[in-house]
Amino acid sequence: MGRTKSAAIECPQCGNKTFKLSAEKHAKGEFDGAVCIDCGRVISEDDIRAKAIDVAENEIRSMASRILGDVFKKRS
Ligand SMILES: [Zn+2]
Fold first, then answer.
1. pLDDT per position as a tens digit, 41-71
2. pTM beyond 0.85
3. How far is the CA of 66 from the centre of ligand 1 (A)?
4. How many domains would you assign to the chain?
């Protein structure tokens, strides 16, 4: 029986964050092949990669706004 895990990824189809994953994959911390317990969509490596890019972009954006915020504070 597979395990479920709350992942850092969301189902691209329904936004659910709980997936069924084989114990082997779970142990490795891998999410490809995970199955959404809500709609049954299988998460592919591409989905994970796309999500990783999303996360990286958000990080960069929040970092940039912090830096820019500091600059504007100094100027005013
Ligand atoms: Zn889903």
1. 999 999 888 888 888 899 999 999 999 888 7
2. no
3. 34
4. 1
Distance from the alpha carbon of residue 70 to the mean position of ligand 1, in angstroms: 40
Its domain, for residue 53, covers: 3-75
Other beta carbons less than 10 A from residue 63's beta carbon: 10
Strand partners, 4: 20
Q: What is the pLDDT of residue 49?
A: 87
d(CA 25, CA 33): 8
Element (H, E) at 55: helix 45-75
Spatial separation of the C-alpha atoms in residues 54 and 59, rounded to whole Å? 9
